[in-house]
Amino acid sequence: MEHGNINYSNLEELSNSSYQLTEGEADIRGWRARNEAGVFVGKVRDLLFDPEQNAVRYLIIDLDNMGTDVEEKAVLIPIGLAALADDKDEVILPDIHLDQYRALPPYITTEVTHQMEDKIRDVIGSPAALRMEETIMEIDRANFYRHHHFNKSNILNRGDQLKKFDTNTDAESLGGPVL
After folding, report:
1. What is the per-residue pLDDT across 56-66, written as a single tens digit (0 to 9) for each?
2. Measured between alpha carbons, how far is residue 142 from residues 100, 118, 154 in Å?
3. Pair 11, 111: CB distance under 8 Å
4. Of the four listed, 3, 95, 117, 172, which is most buried by Cβ atoms within 10 Å?
5. Which of 37, 28, 42, 39 is nearest to 71 (CA)?
6. Residue 139, pLDDT above cutoff 60
7. DSSP 8-state secondary structure symbol assigned to residue 16
8. C-alpha dist (Å) from residue 157 to 45, 53, 89
9. pLDDT of 158-169, one tens digit each?
10. Assign residue 9 a region: left if phi > 0, alpha if psi is -120 to 50, beta otherwise?
11. Which residues contact 31 (CB under 8 A, 6 or more apart)?
12. How do the domains of the chain map onto residue ranges?
């Protein structure tokens, strides 16, 4: 939907909709989120889904207690970057750099725009890979969710092997630790 020159995404929170998780999809709302190194990042507040495609697109993560450098805010993490822990009700996120968390736009209910989604992809994605993708083809809205960031196969079942995520940039060039 478009308002002026702002294009809003047609995404809805799971809690405020009639969307039903299918068999095999865990209801991860309220679960703790940690990174691959085991560091607590926050909690899963809710899921955002696309009612037209009947597909979950993002986890809404309330960042918590990440130190003084990162404000406590809700952010969107693409569903394809999350995995379920094998042994407890936790979501595992990639080792995202503190500067990337800082750069993620805050999530505000009903205010997810195409520009915000593009920024999330730019911040989380490997900068080298994104530059290469953009030179091959310009990202268009019709194919936006076909990116591997939105492949939910990692979050469907426990016991799936965690894969390494290519989300880190060179930590030295960003000037800080990877959380």
Report:
1. 899 999 998 76
2. 26, 13, 23
3. no
4. 117
5. 42
6. no
7. G
8. 20, 21, 12
9. 444 333 333 333
10. beta
11. 43, 44, 89, 90, 91
12. 11-158
| DSSP symbols for 25-85 | ----TT-EEEETT--EEEEEEEEEEETTTTEEEEEEEEE-S--TTS---EEEEEGGG-EE-
Could you please state the CATH topology (level 3) that the domain comprising 11-158 is classified under.
Answer: Photosynthetic Reaction Center; Chain H, domain 2 (3.90.50)
Q: Give CA–CA dist 139/137, Å, rounded.
A: 6
Say if residue 59 is exposed, middle or buried (CB neighbours under 10 Å; 0-12, 13-18, 19+).
Answer: buried
d(CA 36, CA 179): 9
Q: How far is CA 77 from the centre of its chain?
A: 1
**Token couple for 142:** 């019709």
Q: Pick the closest to residue 139 from 19, 5, 131 (CA basis).
A: 131
CA gap 147, 111 in Å, rounded: 22
Task: Name the phi and psi angles at 113, rounded to 5.
Answer: -110, 165
